[in-house]
Amino acid sequence: MSQPVSRRNFLRGAGVALALPWMESAKAALAKPPVRFGCVYFSNGIEPAHWWAKGAGATMELGLAAKPLDPIREDMVFIRGLYHQLAFVSTSPHLGRMNLLTGLPVSLDPAVIRLGTTMDQIMARQIGQQSAIPSLVLGIEPNELRLEDGLSMIYGSSLSWVSPNKPAAKEIYPARVFDQLVGDPNGRRLDRSILDAVLDESKSMRTRVNASDKVKLDEYLESIRGIETRIERASKEERLEGWRPTLAKPNLDRPEEKLPQVIPEHMKLMLDLIVLAFQMDKTRIVTLMLNNDLSQMNFKFLQGVRGALHLDLTHNGKAPDLEAMYLKTNQFHVQQFTYLVQRMKAIDEGGQSLLDNSLMMFASSLFDGDAHSAEQLPIVLAGKAGGAMKTGRILDYMEKGDDNRRCCSLYLSMMDRFGVKVDKFGDTDKRLDGLWG
What we know:
Blueprint: E1 10-13, E2 16-19, H1 20-24, E3 36-41, E4 53-54, E5 61-62, E6 76-80, H2 85-88, H3 119-127, E7 136-139, E8 147-148, E9 151-152, H4 154-157, E10 161-163, E11 166-167, H5 174-182, H6 192-206, H7 211-237, H8 263-279, E12 285-289, H9 310-314, H10 320-345, E13 358-363, E14 379-382, E15 393-396, H11 407-417
Parallel strand pairs: 3-12, 3-13, 6-15, 7-12
Antiparallel strand pairs: 1-2, 4-5, 6-14, 8-9, 10-11, 13-14
């Protein structure tokens, strides 16, 4: 008796499994560069007296905390007033507000890990198959296992969540990120040999499906042959039907195996790898945690900052000397984002820059770290999102009323731009007024 065919079919051969629906998505070709999304996260908020912006474009004035954004004033949008209502009312002053990309409440039950699927992972589910890596989830500090407020520090160590109960695996080793982008030279590739290996399995499947499904299966296999032909042609002509990545091979040396011990060097490596990933079109979705919440990072490498941990500098009781050092850490974080944006702006993709074809977000889950306040979040966007975003602006939502200040409205609008349609996300079903233009 023949075995029934599963609704979720796979072709298997030579140790490889091909999921049929997955290959269908590979038929679409790009006529122009894709739009990328990235989120660079910094912990513990900002020194609020110095986080402000006035004016527009090249004459935009910035407070001391935001001053390192000066070189990219014309390439960014400075946003005030957005917040997560469910985080703002949380009874946990620390980890209860660690939900930047979800807008949903952190579980206050120590026995239950629950937050919410983050917007980057919702995007990865729907459009991640368009690139080799659905999303890159990066960090600098390792996950922490300790408790804070009786809750797991997995909340403070994880920006990206693949499901409400599971954070995405965060990679902190630059060498491993490099290998993920470049690929294992000994690994299998989806080429003719693998396709031939699954043909025997497909012949067996044909005996177990009806006539209509046989036609579908044959059409599908023929589509794979077509994909294979295009891959071969693209490799010979060094193009991919209208648009091709600006890099076919990495322009960086492989980092050392060990974890970098100098924080600025570690961050720069990760930022360079983000650029490499976008240039090679290995992924179109990236998150990077510059540090964990309640970070143990030591900023003594900054001039004028003594050996206090970042947590101590931000929870400073408004002591003048500690606040001055806190400001320096803010400026350092902003410098990292500015470096990334400038690098992306310098890369031409045929009349547009890599930055023009990207939407990059710089944000924290707190406003004033010392007060644990989250009544608004520090958010900066950079890039034109493929032409949809007008930059050099300040968007101020502070006076618009709570229902028009929801950060999740920003995320709904951003996901729309990437073709990811969601009726509701986090705490709202409304898009953000005034974002595009």
